[in-house]
Amino acid sequence: MRIFLVLSLFFMSCNVFSQIFYFNNTEITLTKTTDQSPVHWYIEVFSNLQEDSVLRWKSEFVNIPTEWNINLDCQSISFLTVNDNDSADFTLMAAPLFSQKLIIGATLNDVPGNGSVFFDIYDPNNPDIKERIAFNFIITQGATNSIEDPFLPSIISYNKGILTNVSSIDLMCQVYDAQGREVVVTKQFDEEINLSKLIGQVVYIILVDSKGEIYAINLKL
User: Fold this and answer.
1) pTM
2) Cα Rg, the chain, nearest whole Å
3) Which pLDDT belongs to residue 72?
4) Beta strands per DSSP E along 63-125
C-alpha cells in the first residue's frame, strides 16, 4: 500500500511539472457585427520555464462560415490563414516584455454567423497534456456592407482619449500636435496609447505596420 501511494505521488508530480505553460483564461466570446470586420481578440499564454520553448496548436472549427478567413498571431509567428484541423508550432517566450498573446483574427466578408474556433495547445514532446482554448463568435449582420472607416484604418480604434491597436499587426505610432510637435513616439504599439491630455486638439497620427505600410490620419480628439 505504501509503495502504491509513493508511486501515485511520483506520477502526479511528474504531470504537474511537465506542464510548461498555462493560461489565465481559456475562453472568450466576441459579439460583433459584420461592419466591424476584421475582428480580433486574444488569450494570454505564460511559460513555466526559464528559457523559450516550442508549443504546438491544432485547430477545430465548429459552425464557422466558409466565407470567413481565420488567422492566428502567436507574437513569435503569424499564421495568415488557419483552416479546420490545421496544426503548427510556435515559440513560447520565457520572459517577454509584455505577456504573450494568442490573437485570433476573423475577416467576415459581410457574412454573419455563430461559431467557435478551438485550439488545442500542447508540448510536441508531451502531446498527452493539452490545454484547449476557445474563441466563440456571435456575429450579426451590420447596417452596411462597408468595413472601411473614412478616418481610422481598421487596425486601430479611438475612444475617450485612448488609441487602441485592435489588430494582430505590429505597429509603430507617432503623434504630432497641430504645431507639428511630436507628442507621442512608440516603437511598439501593442495595446493602448493614452491621448487624454490632448482631448480637444487636432492631432496628426502616423502609423507604420510591420510590412512597412504607412497610415497618416488627422484626428480631432
Assistant:
1) 0.59
2) 21
3) 93
4) 69-73, 78-82, 87-92, 100-107, 113-123
